[in-house]
Amino acid sequence: MHCDNRASTHGAPLRACPRSLVRPLRFSRFLPYFFSRLFLRSTASIIKGLALMVPLIAMSASAQGTAAPPADGVYDLLVGTYTGPKSEGIYTYRFDTGSGMATRVSAAQTVNPSYLVASRDGRFVYAVDELPGDNGPASQRGGISAFAFDAASGQLTFLNKVSSEGNDPCYLSLSPDGRYLTTANYSVAADPGGSFAVFPLAADGKVGAAALTVHHEGGGPVKGRQDNAHVHSTVFSPDGQYLFAQDLGADKLFVYRFTPDGSRGLLGPTERRYVNMKAGSGPRHLVFAPDGRHAYLTSELAATVSVFRYSDGNLTLIQTLPMTKPGFNGEVAAAAIHLSPDGRFVYASNRGDANEIVIYAVDPADGQLHEVGRQSTLGRAPREFSIDPTGHWLIVGNQNSDSAYVFRRDMQSGLLEANPTRLDIGAPVDFVWVSR
Predict the structure, then answer these.
(1) pLDDT in tens, 280-311
(2) Phi and psi angles of residue 36, each rounded to the nearest 5 degrees, phi first
(3) I need a surface site. Which of 114, 274, 316, 432 has the fewest CB within 10 A?
(4) Is the bond into 55 cis (omega within 30 degrees of 0)?
(5) Is 424 exposed, middle or buried (0-12, 13-18, 19+ CB in 10 A)?
(6) Burial level of 152, CB count in 10 A (0-12/13-18/19+)?
């Protein structure tokens, strides 16, 4: 194994060596807590990089989401796509939550912005540039692009772009203090393999070079899909103290302690280190309930939704449900998962031959789910969807059908009403709401 033990004061990615090859004083000088735990316990992850040891100014407890609702009920809706003949990047729509009508306002050119996140105040938008893809060279790295966003005009202005420090970036999260951005690098290629990276954000919205890159190792039993690690999402806990990295290839949910005050490095290991999922299940996306006591996970390869109790960095599995109907024997590919704003319902999309959204009601006593309905997405490959901040509408993108549909949502039953509005968008994937 190639490794490099040279310390870097500016956070350049390095590969950690086995304990016998490491000079303890050289590492303990920079990351005493992180690496003492790293080499004391066996782990499937290889840490590349050094934590950025800088104090942070206290900021808002939540850096993601939108500001106060607009008085007229009209939001800016940003749509990320896979670019090609029918799409050039990110599209901005004006979305009227009274009528459910969406009107295109502008477009910003960028490559494969398949996942987006907006700053809490809506002034900045960050997008992955998902490269190289299935057929691209493994030497090519994906990117993270930063944009300034003018909500009044709906215009995005490019600020800068940095390497994602991995292949096929597919997810973004903002840290609770708003100072860092994380990305999951799925990595179709075994080398460099699945990873996630952490980027500092400047006051002017620009994204800095990666301060930390974490590579996972391992795989699962599904040939061609789990030959190596594939990090598919990075999600901060509601209390802001932990980062969960869902690895589809390794069938694990990795847990890292987030300490931006520098007391233990930017990220460090936890006692448990990871949650094992069923072999071959392929964990993909994780979301937390509004009360912070439960979390919900889609597993792509098994097409299941799992429920966890959450407490202080620990996830305890309490339920797993299939997304398919009894007797279904076609291809499956579970994808996105979201809760209604009131936390009463969980929605999950399933691609493959199903191409539907499954709707679950949440038991308020224990967080467990029971299915209440399912809705065809009227197209192929519903990779992502989103519920508007009022809870009245759900929009889903059919990546392989160049269409998105806006469904009216029944607030009491959670069901999606028939006769949705169609939007023609080339390879739509992700949706972000910004208050005007």
Answers:
(1) 999 999 999 999 999 999 999 999 999 999 99
(2) -65, -40
(3) 316
(4) no
(5) exposed
(6) exposed
pLDDT in tens, 139-186: 899 999 999 999 999 999 999 999 999 999 999 999 999 999 999 999
Cis status, amide bond into 221, omega within 30 of 0:
no
Residue 28, classed as helix, strand or coil, is helix
The side-by-side arrangement of strands in the sheet containing 231-236 is 231-236, 242-247, 252-258, 267-276
Q: What is the pTM of this model?
A: 0.86
- 19: three-class secondary structure by DSSP: helix
Helix (H) or strand (E) holding 96: strand 89-96
Residue that is written with structure tokens 């690098």 in the block: 185
- Dihedral (CA of 80, 81, 84, 87) sign: negative
Q: How many CB atoms are closer than 10 A to CB 72?
A: 10
Task: Find all residues with CB under 8 Å of 241, minimum gap 6, and list them.
Answer: 257, 258, 259, 312, 313
Alpha-carbon span 230 to 334, nearest angstrom? 15
For the record, the structure tokens of 86 come out as 């029918």
Q: Which of 428, 419, 366 is nearest to 398 (CA)?
A: 428
